[in-house]
Amino acid sequence: MEKSKVDLFLELAHPNKNGESRWVYTTEFVGKYAELSLGNGLSWGRRNSALRKKYIVEVRKDKTPGNRVDGIRLVGFNNKRHFNQAIRKDIVEVIRQQKCVMLGIRGTSENTSIEVDHKDGRKDDMRVSDIATQRLEDFQPLCKAANDVKRQICKACKASDLRWEATNIKGNPYPFYEGDEHYTEELGCVGCYQYDPVEYRKSMVRRISKEAAEHTSDFIMKKLYPDE
Q1: Predicted local confidence at residue 136, as pLDDT
Q2: Over 66-129, what HEC string results?
Q3: Considering the entire predicted model, what is its pTM?
Protein backbone atom coordinates (compact mmCIF):
# COMPACT_ATOMS: atom_id res chain seq x y z
CA MET A 1 0.00 0.00 0.00
CA GLU A 2 1.25 3.50 -0.87
CA LYS A 3 2.34 5.42 2.22
CA SER A 4 0.75 8.76 3.14
CA LYS A 5 2.92 11.86 3.53
CA VAL A 6 2.58 11.64 7.30
CA ASP A 7 3.76 8.02 7.24
CA LEU A 8 6.73 8.99 5.06
CA PHE A 9 7.67 11.76 7.48
CA LEU A 10 7.40 9.45 10.48
CA GLU A 11 9.66 6.98 8.69
CA LEU A 12 12.26 9.74 8.40
CA ALA A 13 11.74 11.20 11.86
CA HIS A 14 11.56 7.82 13.63
CA PRO A 15 10.06 9.15 16.90
CA ASN A 16 10.86 7.34 20.13
CA LYS A 17 8.42 5.85 22.65
CA ASN A 18 7.78 9.34 24.06
CA GLY A 19 6.81 10.75 20.68
CA GLU A 20 10.05 12.73 20.32
CA SER A 21 12.22 12.88 17.21
CA ARG A 22 15.32 14.50 15.80
CA TRP A 23 15.12 17.57 13.59
CA VAL A 24 14.18 16.48 10.09
CA TYR A 25 15.36 19.03 7.51
CA THR A 26 13.59 19.75 4.24
CA THR A 27 16.86 19.03 2.41
CA GLU A 28 16.13 15.38 3.21
CA PHE A 29 12.94 15.46 1.13
CA VAL A 30 14.48 13.76 -1.89
CA GLY A 31 14.08 10.41 -3.60
CA LYS A 32 11.22 8.44 -2.04
CA TYR A 33 10.58 11.39 0.28
CA ALA A 34 10.38 14.02 -2.46
CA GLU A 35 6.61 14.32 -2.16
CA LEU A 36 7.12 15.81 1.32
CA SER A 37 8.55 18.97 -0.30
CA LEU A 38 7.05 22.17 1.11
CA GLY A 39 6.32 25.75 0.10
CA ASN A 40 6.06 28.39 2.83
CA GLY A 41 3.87 26.29 5.08
CA LEU A 42 3.70 22.79 6.49
CA SER A 43 0.94 21.69 4.11
CA TRP A 44 0.68 18.05 5.29
CA GLY A 45 1.18 19.04 8.93
CA ARG A 46 -1.42 21.74 9.46
CA ARG A 47 -3.24 22.14 12.75
CA ASN A 48 -5.96 19.62 11.91
CA SER A 49 -3.69 17.12 10.19
CA ALA A 50 -3.24 13.52 11.31
CA LEU A 51 0.33 14.40 12.31
CA ARG A 52 -0.67 17.15 14.74
CA LYS A 53 -3.56 15.16 16.16
CA LYS A 54 -1.05 12.59 17.38
CA TYR A 55 2.13 14.62 17.96
CA ILE A 56 3.24 18.05 19.14
CA VAL A 57 5.11 19.52 16.18
CA GLU A 58 7.84 22.17 16.11
CA VAL A 59 9.12 23.88 12.98
CA ARG A 60 12.13 26.07 12.33
CA LYS A 61 12.50 28.73 9.64
CA ASP A 62 15.87 30.21 10.50
CA LYS A 63 18.21 28.57 8.02
CA THR A 64 17.06 30.04 4.69
CA PRO A 65 15.75 33.52 3.75
CA GLY A 66 12.02 34.18 3.74
CA ASN A 67 9.33 32.22 5.54
CA ARG A 68 10.07 28.72 4.28
CA VAL A 69 10.04 25.76 6.66
CA ASP A 70 13.58 24.46 7.15
CA GLY A 71 13.06 21.71 9.69
CA ILE A 72 10.42 19.78 11.59
CA ARG A 73 10.66 17.74 14.77
CA LEU A 74 8.26 16.01 17.13
CA VAL A 75 8.43 16.90 20.83
CA GLY A 76 5.93 14.50 22.33
CA PHE A 77 2.42 13.15 21.98
CA ASN A 78 -0.56 15.47 21.66
CA ASN A 79 -2.78 14.61 24.59
CA LYS A 80 -5.46 17.19 23.85
CA ARG A 81 -9.04 16.00 23.78
CA HIS A 82 -10.65 15.35 20.43
CA PHE A 83 -13.56 17.54 19.41
CA ASN A 84 -16.97 16.19 20.39
CA GLN A 85 -19.62 17.18 17.84
CA ALA A 86 -22.58 16.53 20.14
CA ILE A 87 -24.89 19.53 20.60
CA ARG A 88 -26.95 20.15 23.72
CA LYS A 89 -30.63 19.25 23.35
CA ASP A 90 -32.04 22.67 24.29
CA ILE A 91 -29.85 24.35 21.66
CA VAL A 92 -30.94 21.86 19.00
CA GLU A 93 -34.61 22.46 19.81
CA VAL A 94 -34.28 26.24 19.44
CA ILE A 95 -32.17 26.20 16.25
CA ARG A 96 -34.37 23.67 14.44
CA GLN A 97 -37.38 25.98 14.77
CA GLN A 98 -35.60 28.71 12.78
CA LYS A 99 -35.19 29.27 9.05
CA CYS A 100 -31.90 28.74 7.22
CA VAL A 101 -29.77 31.87 7.61
CA MET A 102 -28.36 31.34 4.11
CA LEU A 103 -31.49 30.56 2.08
CA GLY A 104 -34.34 31.68 4.31
CA ILE A 105 -36.20 28.38 4.14
CA ARG A 106 -37.29 25.65 6.54
CA GLY A 107 -38.80 22.70 4.74
CA THR A 108 -39.49 19.02 5.15
CA SER A 109 -37.56 17.58 2.19
CA GLU A 110 -34.06 16.19 2.61
CA ASN A 111 -32.35 19.30 1.19
CA THR A 112 -34.56 21.88 2.91
CA SER A 113 -34.70 20.41 6.42
CA ILE A 114 -32.86 22.43 9.07
CA GLU A 115 -29.55 21.22 10.47
CA VAL A 116 -27.78 22.69 13.50
CA ASP A 117 -24.49 23.99 12.13
CA HIS A 118 -21.34 24.65 14.12
CA LYS A 119 -20.48 28.18 12.98
CA ASP A 120 -16.76 27.44 13.31
CA GLY A 121 -16.21 24.93 10.52
CA ARG A 122 -12.83 23.86 11.89
CA LYS A 123 -14.43 22.46 15.04
CA ASP A 124 -11.39 22.81 17.26
CA ASP A 125 -12.69 24.96 20.13
CA MET A 126 -12.91 22.68 23.15
CA ARG A 127 -15.40 25.00 24.85
CA VAL A 128 -17.85 24.36 22.00
CA SER A 129 -16.99 20.67 22.18
CA ASP A 130 -18.28 20.51 25.77
CA ILE A 131 -22.08 20.50 25.96
CA ALA A 132 -21.85 22.11 29.41
CA THR A 133 -20.16 25.23 28.02
CA GLN A 134 -21.82 25.49 24.59
CA ARG A 135 -23.74 28.68 23.80
CA LEU A 136 -26.67 29.22 21.47
CA GLU A 137 -24.60 31.73 19.47
CA ASP A 138 -22.02 29.02 18.64
CA PHE A 139 -24.53 27.52 16.22
CA GLN A 140 -26.80 28.57 13.38
CA PRO A 141 -29.68 27.04 11.37
CA LEU A 142 -28.71 25.85 7.88
CA CYS A 143 -30.77 23.73 5.52
CA LYS A 144 -28.98 20.57 4.48
CA ALA A 145 -28.17 21.93 1.00
CA ALA A 146 -26.50 25.04 2.43
CA ASN A 147 -24.70 23.05 5.12
CA ASP A 148 -23.30 20.63 2.53
CA VAL A 149 -21.91 23.56 0.52
CA LYS A 150 -20.46 25.22 3.62
CA ARG A 151 -18.78 21.96 4.62
CA GLN A 152 -16.89 21.87 1.31
CA ILE A 153 -15.93 25.54 1.59
CA CYS A 154 -14.57 24.97 5.09
CA LYS A 155 -12.68 21.91 3.89
CA ALA A 156 -10.96 23.99 1.20
CA CYS A 157 -10.12 26.67 3.77
CA LYS A 158 -8.53 24.10 6.09
CA ALA A 159 -6.39 22.81 3.24
CA SER A 160 -5.21 26.22 2.02
CA ASP A 161 -5.70 28.61 4.98
CA LEU A 162 -7.40 30.93 2.47
CA ARG A 163 -10.86 32.05 3.48
CA TRP A 164 -13.91 32.12 1.18
CA GLU A 165 -14.87 35.61 0.02
CA ALA A 166 -18.46 36.82 0.38
CA THR A 167 -18.12 38.74 -2.88
CA ASN A 168 -18.59 35.36 -4.59
CA ILE A 169 -22.28 36.17 -4.01
CA LYS A 170 -23.51 38.91 -6.32
CA GLY A 171 -24.47 42.03 -4.37
CA ASN A 172 -22.08 41.46 -1.47
CA PRO A 173 -19.74 44.46 -1.47
CA TYR A 174 -17.09 43.24 0.97
CA PRO A 175 -15.20 39.93 1.07
CA PHE A 176 -15.14 39.76 4.90
CA TYR A 177 -16.66 41.59 7.85
CA GLU A 178 -13.41 41.15 9.80
CA GLY A 179 -9.91 40.20 8.67
CA ASP A 180 -8.89 39.27 5.15
CA GLU A 181 -8.45 36.16 3.02
CA HIS A 182 -5.71 34.74 5.25
CA TYR A 183 -6.86 32.42 8.03
CA THR A 184 -5.18 33.26 11.34
CA GLU A 185 -5.21 31.56 14.73
CA GLU A 186 -6.12 34.87 16.39
CA LEU A 187 -9.27 35.59 14.38
CA GLY A 188 -10.17 32.05 13.42
CA CYS A 189 -13.36 31.85 11.36
CA VAL A 190 -14.74 35.17 12.62
CA GLY A 191 -15.26 37.57 9.71
CA CYS A 192 -16.13 34.92 7.14
CA TYR A 193 -19.61 35.02 5.60
CA GLN A 194 -19.92 31.25 6.06
CA TYR A 195 -19.21 31.61 9.78
CA ASP A 196 -22.02 34.11 10.34
CA PRO A 197 -23.97 35.46 7.34
CA VAL A 198 -26.26 37.44 9.66
CA GLU A 199 -23.34 39.30 11.24
CA TYR A 200 -21.92 39.85 7.76
CA ARG A 201 -25.17 41.52 6.63
CA LYS A 202 -25.30 43.72 9.75
CA SER A 203 -21.72 44.81 9.16
CA MET A 204 -22.45 45.42 5.47
CA VAL A 205 -25.37 47.72 6.31
CA ARG A 206 -23.23 49.74 8.71
CA ARG A 207 -20.36 50.07 6.27
CA ILE A 208 -22.43 50.75 3.17
CA SER A 209 -24.50 53.33 5.06
CA LYS A 210 -21.35 55.16 6.07
CA GLU A 211 -20.11 55.14 2.48
CA ALA A 212 -23.53 56.25 1.23
CA ALA A 213 -23.31 59.32 3.42
CA GLU A 214 -19.95 60.17 1.89
CA HIS A 215 -20.49 59.25 -1.78
CA THR A 216 -23.09 59.30 -4.56
CA SER A 217 -25.64 56.58 -5.24
CA ASP A 218 -23.68 55.60 -8.37
CA PHE A 219 -20.71 54.80 -6.15
CA ILE A 220 -22.85 52.49 -4.01
CA MET A 221 -24.37 50.73 -7.04
CA LYS A 222 -20.91 50.05 -8.43
CA LYS A 223 -19.90 48.69 -5.04
CA LEU A 224 -22.83 46.28 -4.97
CA TYR A 225 -22.92 45.38 -8.68
CA PRO A 226 -19.51 46.24 -10.19
CA ASP A 227 -20.08 44.46 -13.52
CA GLU A 228 -23.31 46.22 -14.46
Answers
A1: 97
A2: CCCCCEEEEEEECCCCCCCCCCCHHHHHHHCCCCCCCCCCCCCCCCCCEEEEECCCCCCCHHHH
A3: 0.62
Stretches where the chain sits below pLDDT 70 are 1-2, 40, 81
CA–CA–CA angle 6, 38, 46 (5° rounding): 55
Other residues' Cβ atoms within 10 Å of the Cβ of residue 127 = 10
Query: What is the structure's pLDDT at 81?
Result: 66
Q: What is the DSSP string of 138-200?
A: GEEEEEHHHHHHHHHHHHHHHHH-BPPPGGGSTT---S-SSS-SB--TTTTTTT-TTT-HHHH
pLDDT of residue 165: 98
Q: How many CA atoms lie within 13 A of 224 on its CB side?
A: 14
